[in-house]
Amino acid sequence: MSLVSEGADFGGGVPAAEDLHLAEPSLATVGDYIALMKPRVMSLVVFTALTGLAVAPGTLHPLIGFTALLCVAVGAGAAGCLNMWYDADIDARMTRTMRRPIPAGRVQPGEALAFGLTLAGFAVVVLGLLVNILSAALLAFTIFFYAVVYSMWLKRATPQNIVIGGAAGALPPMIGWAAATGSLSLEPVLLFLIIFLWTPPHFWALALYRADDYARAGVPMLPVVKGDAVTRRQILQYTLVLVPLGVAPWLAGYAGPVYGFTAIVSGILMLVLAWQVFCERRPAERASRHLFAFSILYLFLLFAVLLVEQGWGGLFGRLLA
Amino acid sequence: MDHKRKDDGIVLTEAQKRARRSRSIAIALALGALVILFYVITLVKGPIVLVRPI
Asked: B residues 8-27 near A, CB within 8 Å?
C-alpha cells in the first residue's frame, strides 16, 4: 500500500487503462473524510478523556484543556481512519460497514492512509507542544495500539482481539488526566480498567447477533470461533468483574454517593441483562441487543455522573447546590 | 489533436471540482485554526511556553 494513488505511474510510458481509472481525481467530500474518523466513536473517546481531565486535581487553563481534547479527538479520528484503511477488505464484506467511504469507492485507500497518518502526526505533535509530553506519548501509544496492534494484528489473529485491543479505547481518561496533571495515579488507572473490562461484554453482545457477518468477513470473533455458549458465559464472567470495579471509585473515596448509587443500580441492571444473555438458549439475539444498547448507557452514566459530581473540584455540584 | 489532448492533462468534471473545492476550504480552515490556536496559547502560556519538562 503506498501513499500515492494506487496505479499512478511515475516511471514514464503509457499507463494502462485500469491505472488511469484508479488515478482518477478524487470525488471524496469533506463528509467522507469526517466519516473516516468514526465520529461516533470519537465522541465517546472525547467524553471519557474529558472526564479524566475534569476529575484530575489542580487547575488547567480552559484553552489548554480544550486543546488537549481537540488533540484526543483528532488522534482518535486518525486511529479510526487507519483502521478503516487497513480493514477495507473486511468492511466490504460486512453489512454493517459496507457503505463506509473506502469500500463504497468514494475514498481511495491511499488517500485514507495519508489522511490518517497526517492527523496522527498533527495530534501527537500539537499535544506535545501545547500541553505536555506525557499526554502526547500516551496518545501516540493509543493510536499505535489501535491501528497496529489491534487492527493489523489481533483483529484477524485471535478471538481475544477485542479484549486486548480494548486497551486502546480505555486509555483516553488517562490521557485526559495526564494532560491536566503531567502525571498518572491510581484514579485514572481505575477509569482505564472500567473501560477495559466493559469492552468485552459490550462487543461480544454485538458479535452474538452479528456472528454471520463476522464469519463471512473471516474475523475470528469469539462467537465465530468458540460458539454462542462460550461467548455468553464469558460475557457474564466479565460483567461480574466489571460491576464491582464500576463501584470501586466510590469505595476508594474518589467519587461521591451519587456516583456510588448510580454504579450500583446500573451495575445490577448490567448483571441482569448479562444473565439474560447467558440463559438464552436460542441464538441470543434479543437479550444481546438489549445488553449491547444498555452497556453504552452504563458507561456513559458512570462517566457522566463522575464528571458532574467530581469534575473541576465538584464545580457542577456547587453550582447546583 | 493528440498533442492538444495531452497538454490539457486531466480535465475535472464539475462534481470533481466541487469536491476538490470543499476539501481545499476544509484544509484552509483547519490550518487557519491551527495558526490561531498556537498564537493564542503562546499568549496564554507566556514565556513558559519555551519550558519543556518531560
From this structure: 10, 12, 15-16, 19-20, 22-23, 25-26
